[in-house]
Amino acid sequence: MSGVRVLVGTRKGAFVLTSDERRQAWDVTGPHFAGWEVYHVAGSPLDPNRLYASQSTSWFGQLIQRSDDGGKSWQPAGNDFTYAGVPGTHQWYDGTPHPWEFARVWHLEPSLTDPDTVYAGVEDAALFRSTDAGGTWQEVRGLREHGSGSHWQPGAGGMCLHTIVLDPQNSQRMFVAISAAGVFRTDDGGNSWQPVNKGLLSDGIPSPAAEVGHCVHNLAMHPSRPGTLFMQKHWDVMRSDDGGDSWNEVSGNLPTTSAFPSPCTRTSRRPSTSSPSRATPTTSRRTASCGSTAAAPAATSGSR
Predict the structure, then answer these.
(1) What are the Cα distances from residue 14, in Å, to 6, 54, 266?
(2) What is the arrangement of strands in the sheet containing 61-67, beginning at the earlier edge strand?
(3) pLDDT of 236
(4) Handedness of CA 103, 114, 43, 65 (dihedral sign)
(5) Among 52, 79, 177, 285, which one is least packed by beta carbons within 10 Å?
(6) 188 — phi, psi (to 5°)?
(7) In order of start, what are the domains of the chain with their CATH numbers?
(8) Range from 100-104, 132-136, 178-182, 280-284 carrying the lowest mean pLDDT
């Protein structure tokens, strides 16, 4: 019988939920880091015992935690997130230049090919990578130094890189979503990036069809067709079938098109249930936004 694990981040700590595929009874551990806001909890698809958590409070600041035993115990990991070179400026809410300032880690994405590699999406928007299981972090500077970086602007929740999507069939391809800049793709492992926002229309920005400036709330990849992506942004639900090169609206009859979804992530079709550490390592996180800074439980299940 398959097992499922749900990793949940909330304003009051992190929780680990495990069950069998029937999901009629759950074992719950936590809160881990009681009293801390946990922006994201993520498990490695290569080592289900390896978990990462991003804690952040206005009083204590940012802290990355790592577990190597499925959440039974945690140890502080590296917490130095320094922008490469001279950071420069981006646009502030009023359109004036504002210096890049690190605030917190919004998203952690373990590698699909190396158990010790993990990516971090931060505020102010940038992408960092660790190749020593979170011990040290280096900026993937090609993203922030893309020619459009000086025109990025925060949404109401801050200028955050809140989603990282890795292509399971092409280790050189990655997507990130930034509020409020849009979606960017690399096809060379992060050395160079391009905005992939063609077809997006956003009210309230100088050009509704601009290359950047769109407030994307979330991005998800089809589990077996990595060229198919789904996006929820501040007005529409969108779909791309060409790796983000173009987008079409698929809002249909949804009751609202402005929300903060948390996509389900299945990392193993039939994980062993010989121990809880072999349950599916899924993740939950605080919802990114242009219109909300509330921390949601946002539990996501590990199978569909």
Answers:
(1) 11, 10, 20
(2) 75-76, 61-67, 51-57, 37-43, 284-285
(3) 86
(4) negative
(5) 79
(6) -135, 35
(7) 3-285 (2.130.10.10)
(8) 280-284
Residue, of 25 and 209, whose pLDDT is higher = 25
DSSP 110: E
Residues 6+ positions from 39 with CB-CB distance below 8 Å: 9, 54, 55, 56, 104, 105, 106, 107, 285, 286, 295
Q: Identify the bridge partners of residue 16 per DSSP, sorted by sequence position.
A: 7, 29
Q: pLDDT by residue (tens digit) across 85-120?
A: 999 999 999 999 999 999 999 999 999 999 999 999
List the structure tokens of 36. Answer: 């801390």
Name the β-bridge partners of 110. Answer: 118
- Say which residue the tokens 């809410």 belong to: 93
Residue 206 confidence (pLDDT): 56
Query: Mean pLDDT over residues 4-28, rounded?
Result: 94
Phi, psi (5° rounding) for residue 246? -150, 155
For residue 72, what are the contacts with CB-CB under 8 A and spacing of at least 6?
29
Question: Which residues make beta-bridge pairs with 280?
Answer: 4
Distance in angstroms (rounded) separating the CA atoms of residues 124 and 118: 19
Give 225's contacts (C-beta < 8 A, 6+ positions apart): none
How does pLDDT run across 231-256, given as a tens digit for each residue? 988 888 899 999 999 999 998 888 76
Quick check: helix, strand or coil at residue 149? helix
